[in-house]
Amino acid sequence: MNPRAADLVQGTLDMLILKTLQLEPRHGYGIAQRIEQISRGVFRVNPGSLFPAFRRLERQGWIKAEWRPTENHRRAKYYRLTERGRGQLRTETAEWTKQLAAITRIMEAS
Amino acid sequence: MNPRAADLVQGTLDMLILKTLQLEPRHGYGIAQRIEQISRGVFRVNPGSLFPAFRRLERQGWIKAEWRPTENHRRAKYYRLTERGRGQLRTETAEWTKQLAAITRIMEAS
DNA sequence: GCTCTCCTCTAGATAATCAAGATGACCATA
DNA sequence: TATGGTCATCTTGATTATCTAGAGGAGAGC
User: Fold this and answer.
1) Residue nearest to nucleotide C16 (CA to C1')
2) What digits encode the pLDDT tens for the residues B64-93?
3) B3-41: per-residue pLDDT in tens?
4) Residues near A107 by Cβ (< 8 Å), separated by ≥ 6?
């Protein structure tokens, strides 16, 4: 069996997607690629997780999709962060920081 | 509605339980209390998550249970970490560290 | 007797993820 | 023209960790 990429820490995918869109709109495939690259292969996001996440985030009004040609003259659906999406990113980042600190405290308790 | 304790980051409960047992055996209720205390109330582990986790960990041979009286002369099931459990704790800690670094890289990418 | 706290445990629902594809279009090469 | 690679979207079905919302028992204090 191949060395498998780690499963995503459940609950973080939405935050990672929003974060990935913070600077500029991207299409789904590009988002997955970016997460894989920056995580240095630790997270390999699978389409069966990615596309349901897009629908979730769209339904909440945090991202918006638009069909556009890519640089390679192919069609792709570009997602951009809405204003409410930026707010949500801040909220989720704060929550993550809090939980991270809590886990760290437990892991470092002597 | 009361300010609710944050949901556990999914996948970390097993690690937190093993960690809590690292120094000495504890009973289930005590484990939940300790996690809540050290996390300063961020995680409020609920029995419906806790006891299934115990069965999982026991089935894997990572913890072992034994009925014993508490300091208050009540019966309680004390769980202790097995040798294999200590190995598993090391493995999960390493994996968590790796994933944490990956998430941090994504969250800090400019 | 009564209630509070300690402590174990269960049933059912929810929801995020995974595995394993299908589909189609552009592009390079034979 | 045929073929195969890679870009790109999307689906179906299963798994599984968690949550909500309890039940139940037993000692302690009043």
Assistant:
1) A10
2) 999 999 988 899 999 999 999 999 999 999
3) 455 678 999 999 999 999 999 999 999 999 999 999 999
4) B15, B16, B19, B93, B96
What predicted TM-score, i.e. pTM, was given to this entire model?
0.92
Q: Do B23 and A110 touch (CB under 8 A)?
A: yes
Structure tokens at B2: 């009361």
- B107 to A96: CB separation less than 8 angstroms, yes or no: yes
Who touches strand C, with Cβ under 7 Å?
A 4, 7-8, 10-14, 45-49, 52-53, 56, 72-74; B 27-30, 47-48, 51-52, 54, 70, 72, 74, 76-78
Of the CATH numbers 1.10.472.10, 1.10.10.10, 2.40.50.1020, 3.40.50.920, which one belongs to the domain with range B13-108? 1.10.10.10
Task: Give the DSSP H/E element, type plus range, for residue B67.
Answer: strand B63-69
